[in-house]
Amino acid sequence: MIPSQMHAVLLKGHGGLEQLEYRDDVAVPAPAAGEVLLRVRAAGVNNTDINLRTGWYSKADAAVAADAGWSGAALSFPRIQGADACGEIVAVGAGVDAGRVGERVLVDPVLRPAGDPSLAAARYFGSDCNGAFADYVAVPAANARRITSRLADAELASFPCAYSAAENMLTRAGVAAGETVLVTGASGGVGSAAVQLARRRGARVLAIASRPKAAAVAALGAEQVLERDAPLVATLGRESLDAVVDVVGGTGFADCLELLRRGGRYAVAGAIAGPRVALDLRTLYLKDLKLLGCTILEPEVFGNLIGYIERGEIRAEVSATYPLAEIAAAQRDFLAKAHVGKIVLVP
Fold first, then answer.
1. Do residues 344 and 338 touch, judged by C-beta distance below 8 A?
2. CB under 8 Å to 234, separation ≥6 — which residues?
3. Measured between alpha carbons, how far is 67 from 210 in angstroms, rounded to an integer?
4. pLDDT tens-digit series, residues 294-307
5. Distance (Å, whole) CA 281 – CA 121
6. Which candidate, 345, 342, 280, places its Cα nearest to that of 317?
7. Which end of the chain, N or C, is less surrounded by CB atoms within 10 Å?
8. N- to C-terminal Cα distance for the chain?
9. Are 298 and 172 in contact (CB under 8 A)?
10. For 41-79, how does the pLDDT look when each residue is reduced to its tens digit (9 = 90+)?
């Protein structure tokens, strides 16, 4: 039996943790044509949840609501966040095979209209539309990707957003076996995923993380772990890298470009140390570098990720789990940055 109401966390507006309201009277969505209804079993916490709540995506100095969405448009409230979802299909909309009821699935977070693969048409699950911080969520059937795995729900929920972001950067940068790649922010969700996924490709992985987390990052596959404030150019040498996978940005950006060999690739999908960086265009064009912004996944990325999980080629790195009702505590834990890997909410 599917109830008419559910538990969910509503984001009421931009601001602090007080903008998150846990409710038990939110209407359960009905799957539209081409959609399925999931019972959410676990949902990961990501930087994008914090960024959307605080209005970080806005480039304006005031009135962040004017351009605080991923696309630069205003957001409507209330909304349900949550980009990571592991769940079970419990109902289907018109045009969807009823035989899918009962499937265990992960949600591909990039929602593309049927027949329109363009970047402009894509929406992001839990940001541009309601997401997984609820008992139930309706998603396009094509985005509910069946998975067969012995991993627990919380472990599976750690993969979609962070691991697909990391795999997308590596795919765009064309990281291959035998190459040397530097991963910044290597203890976080995307960074720790990138370490594993780059090592899976046969690359030599260097990573940046704080000293207390160095051993955990090395265990994920990093050959060398440097401290956050290490003098990177002096330590590694100019033109010593084939690629950089960056989620940090800030003042370290210029050093990342100095470290790249001629023709090197810099891929970015985050800016936790600051979005504004110093760029010397001479470094960019005289070294024939490629700068790659990475948000919307390449079409093959999520399917490949499902395969890696099912074949046991990567492992889940879950630091802690919280009940959905304790989302504020989970986000405080997340912001403290004392963990390695992912924090997961369980409805």
1. no
2. none
3. 34
4. 999 999 999 999 99
5. 31
6. 342
7. N
8. 17
9. yes
10. 999 999 999 999 999 988 875 455 566 666 666 788 999
Asked if 208 and 226 touch (Cβ cutoff 8 Å), the reply is yes
Integer angstrom CA distances of residue 55 from 76, 127, 205: 12, 12, 33
Strand pairing report for 86-92 and 35-44: antiparallel
103: tokens are 């499937």
Global pTM value: 0.94
Please provide the DSSP assignment of 123-151 as one string: EEBTTTB--SSBSEEEEEGGGEEE---SS
CA distance to 139, 162, 229, 291, per residue, from 40 (Å): 11, 18, 40, 37
Q: CB of 20 within 8 A of CB of 335?
A: no
CB 270, CB 190: distance < 8 Å: yes
Are residues 120 and 92 in contact, defined by beta-carbon separation less than 8 angstroms?
Answer: no
Phi, psi of 214, rounded to the nearest 5 degrees: -60, -45
Residue 105 parent element (H or E): strand 104-107
* Cis? peptide before 78, omega within 30° of 0: yes
